[in-house]
Design goal:
0% of the residues lie in helices and 53% in strands. With 124 residues, the protein is mainly β. The strands form 2 sheets. Strands 2, 4, 5, 6, 9, 10 and 11 form a 7-stranded mixed beta sheet that branches. A hairpin with a 2-residue loop joins strand 5 and strand 6.
Length: 124
């Protein structure tokens, strides 16, 4: 059975950093484009960052995180990362990783597999 798992969330003060990880079982993650989405209570899930199968040279970011977050992948380890720097209280949300077979996308419905999420809380 296919399963994606996020890790690395937690509580951090504004201006701090966290690194999230996404790993998979039941599929070879290196063959998939991977994105991070986030959802705050009472709000719709929104796109954060994406990386293609080509690797770190082909990435895309939401304007709200551009210059602060970096998505990368280590295909030898089968892991995708989201490095989050200069965190703000508005970054507080549950963060999800998602995978699809083909090119990267910012659309939720384009993704086939989802993790259960990891909580990120940024205090002021």
């Amino acid at each position: 059975q296919v399963q994606l798992v996020e890790s690395g969330g937690g509580l951090v003060q504004a201006g701090g950093s966290l690194r999230l990880s996404c790993s998979a079982s039941g599929l070879t993650l290196s063959r998939y484009s991977v994105s991070w989405f986030r959802q705050a209570p009472g709000k719709e899930r929104e796109f954060v960052a994406a990386i293609s199968r080509s690797g770190d040279s082909d990435t895309y970011y939401a304007d709200s995180v551009k210059g602060r977050f970096t998505i990368s992948r280590d295909n030898a380890k089968g892991t995708v990362y989201l490095q989050m720097n200069s965190l703000k209280p508005e970054d507080t949300a549950v963060y999800y990783c998602a995978a699809r077979r083909w090119s990267l996308s910012t659309r939720e419905n384009d993704y086939d597999y989802w993790g259960q999420g990891t909580q990120v809380t940024v205090s002021s």
